Amino acid sequence: MKGESSKPDKAGPARTKAGTIARGQTIYKADAEGGAWRVLSGTVRLDQPGPDGLQFAGMAVTGDVIGAETLLFGRYTFTARALSACVLEPWCADRAEPSGQLLLGMLAATEERMAEVLALRSGKAGERVRRLFEFMTGGLTRGGRAAKLALPRLKDIAEITDLSVETVSRTISHLGAEGTLEVSGRYRARHVTAESVFGVRS
Amino acid sequence: MKGESSKPDKAGPARTKAGTIARGQTIYKADAEGGAWRVLSGTVRLDQPGPDGLQFAGMAVTGDVIGAETLLFGRYTFTARALSACVLEPWCADRAEPSGQLLLGMLAATEERMAEVLALRSGKAGERVRRLFEFMTGGLTRGGRAAKLALPRLKDIAEITDLSVETVSRTISHLGAEGTLEVSGRYRARHVTAESVFGVRS
DNA sequence: CGGGGTCTTGATCTCAATCAACCAATGTGG
DNA sequence: CCACATTGGTTGATTGAGATCAAGACCCCG
Questions:
Q1: Chain-chain contact of A111 with B73 (C-beta, under 8 angstroms)
Q2: What residues 128-167 of chain A have any CB closer than 8 A to a CB of chain B?
Q3: Is the CB of A172 under 7 A from strand D?
Q4: pLDDT of B55 over the 60 cut
Q5: What SS3 class is residue B97?
Q6: Of A50, A96, A184, B45, which is the most buried if we count CB atoms within 10 A?
């Protein structure tokens, strides 16, 4: 799970084994054949092919299953890309039909997710970005403090929150400057500490 | 299914029979007990109770099932309100477990829906409103031309598209004036004809 | 009749988009 | 290892779409 071409967009042979995906890598492409995956860690962005390129269509975070539609159609509906480094494992690889209870749970989780992602597109720029980081770190539900979040590319943040890249750049530095966020590193090594993200929730 | 209190927010006894819901009526409230429903016609808005009131969390259109999470939890996760007049019928009322295939289909449909609703929050005001109307009339997939769409309250349109009520009001008159949309009636009797909505898609 | 919710319209202001450079990292091939 | 191209991120100046504030009209209901 890494000997693949380094070009993110070269659709290599469909992945079939568990493994790590680097930030920015395409996990699978819409319309390709393949199976479902569980996200063991990291965050994934889902896009729908549209008339003008790929369009943001959803997100998956640690614990979620992506590509479940392949159990029905055999092909992926969306394109999946890793926002931060991800660990994936095949889910339901044997095509054994998952139980109704399980599927109902996934359905409910998907609807919850929808609500959260939708909320990332309302409010002021600072709010949106902060909520995205919270969402990516698992919100307040985690016990572990001070988790470091590796930032996705600004372009991804921009498309998810429906802001421009420039605004996102300015917003992050601003949040860092006023102490709302603790930003460390630059470029591909940029992180924010979850602790400070949590802290805002008063 | 109508002898209930006319106050939309008085949570009467849980609905158990098929019937029509008027525009603006609350179908069920988050946390209440009840079952799942299939939307035979009309559109529904789903909201999540948040710190500052209800927050827009999703939509359901003709053919969708709402409240499926009750099969798992027994209670509704969201509050559902009719955007336009709706006809509903109980779904899976006997609590018989629906088949895996069916649930997978619903899961896929929900993800598709998520992508569409998300798209309603990007682009310029005119785009958003127009796409919402398209979405509510079933997009381009319907054969029947010239279907009339009863408009939801401007406040609902505003919250769905993340615009202000004033902007929505101005946008609709503007779209009507320039011929992009055919608007008829005023206030609660306002409609747009789907034909012209379709027409725009060049 | 009132009165509250809904819609419209106008004037003003603000936040973020846009346009335009520029720099910093990474990657490529000679 | 160095020139070069490409991608990703930053920063500044300007603009514009839509938010906000305010007032009034309309509708529906009791």
A1: no
A2: 162
A3: yes
A4: yes
A5: coil
A6: B45
C24 nearest neighbour residue (CA to C1'): A187
In CATH, the number for domain A121-197 is 1.10.10.10
Report which DSSP code applies to A189. Answer: G
Number of residues that make up chain B: 202
Among B97, B113, B114, pick the best mutation site for testing chain A contact (most A Cβ within 10 A).
Answer: B114
Q: What phi, psi does A131 have (nearest 5°)? A: -65, -35
- Residues in B 153-182 whose C-beta is less than 7 A from nucleic strand C are 153-155, 165-166, 169-170, 172-173
User: pLDDT at residue B3 above 70?
Assistant: no
Q: Which helix (H) or strand (E) holds B89?
A: strand B86-91
Query: Using CA atoms in the order B155, B115, B127, A53, what is the torsion angle rounded to 10 degrees?
Result: 160
Confidence of residue B94 (pLDDT cuts 50, 70, 90): confident
% of chain A beyond a pLDDT of 70: 83
CATH superfamily of B19-118: Jelly Rolls (2.60.120.10)
Distance of CA B93 to the CA centre of its chain: 22
Where in chain B do CATH 2.60.120.10 domains reside? 19-118
Q: Do the Cβ atoms of A193 and A137 come closer than 8 Å?
A: no
Task: Tell me the two tokens of residue B47.
Answer: 């909201």
Residues of chain B with CATH 1.10.10.10: 121-197
| Residue A162 confidence (pLDDT) above 60 | yes
Q: Which residue is nearest nucleotide C19, judged by alpha carbon to C1' distance?
A: A166
Range among A41-50, A93-102, B8-17 rated most confident: A41-50
Q: Which residues pair with A48 in a beta bridge?
A: A55
